[in-house]
Amino acid sequence: MRLYSLKKCLRIRRVLVFVVIFVLVTTGIKMKDFLKMNNNDYDNDNSGMIIKKYELYKYVGKTFTVGLFLKNQSPGNTTYCNFRLGDSVTFNYTDNDVSYSPELGEKGPYRILYSVVKGFQYNNTETNSVTYVTHITLEFLFHIVEIAKRWSGPISVACFLPGTDTILALKVLEKMCFCVKEMENVDIHFIYPKDHPPKLMSLKNYSFWLDMEEYNIYTPWKMIETNSVQKTSDNNNNNNNTYINDNKTNIKTTTTTSATTNTYEGTCYVPEKILKNSYKSKKNLVYPINVARNVARYGSRSKFILVSDIELLPSDNLVNEFLNMIKRLNEKNKHLGEHYFTKKKHVYVLPVFEVSETEPDVPRTKSQLLDLYEKERAVYFHRYICTHCQRFPGIQRWLQRKVHPRIKTGTIQPLLVVKREFPYHRWEPIYIGTNNEPLYSELLTWEGQQDKMTQMHEMCLLEYRFVILNGAFLVHTPGIKRRHIVKKNTKLLLKKGNLNSIVITNHSSSKVTTDINSAQKNAHMKRNSYLYQIITQDVMGRYKFNPRCRIH
Description:
Elements: H1 2-35, E1 42-44, E2 50-52, H2 53-60, E3 81-83, E4 98-100, E5 110-119, E6 130-137, H3 143-150, E7 155-160, H4 165-179, E8 186-193, H5 206-214, H6 240-250, H7 272-275, H8 279-282, H9 289-298, E9 304-307, E10 312-314, H10 318-332, H11 340-343, E11 346-349, E12 352-355, H12 366-374, E13 378-380, H13 387-390, H14 395-400, E14 413-418, E15 431-433, H15 453-461, E16 465-470, E17 474-476, H16 483-496, H17 500-505, H18 513-519, H19 523-542
Parallel strand pairs: 6-7, 6-9, 7-8, 11-16, 12-17
Antiparallel strand pairs: 1-2, 3-5, 4-5, 5-8, 9-15, 10-17, 11-15, 12-13, 14-16
Protein name: N-acetyllactosaminide beta-1,3-N-acetylglucosaminyltransferase
Organism: Pediculus humanus subsp. corporis
């Protein structure tokens, strides 16, 4: 018995000694690193604080802010856009201007106004180009200028603007069109629920106009007091498809009463708080993200399209390099048939990354991105929120394949070709394709999540090939999302009973599903999950069964 107790004491003693040694070694290493601090890695501020250089941006406020470059600009003398249905004061439309959504059509709850604001050069862009196809709500209007500054092709944007959001958006867009030349390549379409048509602002909304005048957004040409712009009728006998086809070629390019000379003062920048005072948030309206995606697709006119989220910024020279790559592939593989790589169910995947919120700008080249990745200042998109969503096949090969700094052309190359099958059946790639790909299901909303999964499943059954591109990528506007932060924010919002705030806060990071479910089984998610089952069952009934195309 005594021998047993002695052995037990010795074991405990060994454990304690090990713990003490471990603590001493760890502390010693940290002290050594501290004493060997390199002046290149650390800076002293005026108060004597020692901070790491990569934290300095956060400390002095040099973080990336969407549209902030406009703060030092003043509006020009002329606009770069045509306001087809009038400006924020003269805006008006008729039944002939109204279309239905691409998938649900007349039975759907949403109505479309195509090409409300169109850049003067949009129709002059080459059809053999790549259109950046995206969608927004009022809060994300200024993301358009960030895309326009980086994208060398046409841009098609679907804006969800119910009620008075329409007029506020028009006012801000007027200013953007006087300030940013690249707006000449943008085509903007409006979406609204048929029960919440566009409304003009009233004199009674005094606080709103005070805010607008404070930031030189509103120019009081005249004040209009009315409840709605135009009473729309659902008895629209025009053929929706005909209207859309006309839109793609030369939709109503008649001049409007919109001002073409600058009447603005001050800077081009609009504070974020102005755009967050939205009709959508006040009315707790859901965001029909797939209606918006489909509308923006239908509004494009180029051969290729990139359906993306507005917060995803492209790498440099992506359009030209991609078109050059397609040309090379077709020339080298003529034996496969003409346009094999564009007509035979091929789409081209752009890897997506996110960078630290303290980065003053997003990387534009792969070399810049890899440099941040090695410093753990960049990760693949949603790494800490949804590991399978954007972790693409061959990611390690992509990261190891560096681009030679002297190479100026041909930087975009196919890395590998895969199918979206098990174990990548939950992968949600963002890709360059054409308008031949299946539409997004308009029954699914952003709030319910899984909004792209039905299209992905259908493309799996259609045996699409996903070509992962090396040398091209997208980067989310700075800020790495982490699970514990999302949980904290989600629980707080749920406690306050304000689920709509989640939509505004996390607009493009659609993978907060697990976190919201863990806090509460949200009605939107239940609805999307139910519809997802119905839609996928219908899709599977139309195609040959493939056991590797899983839905869970």
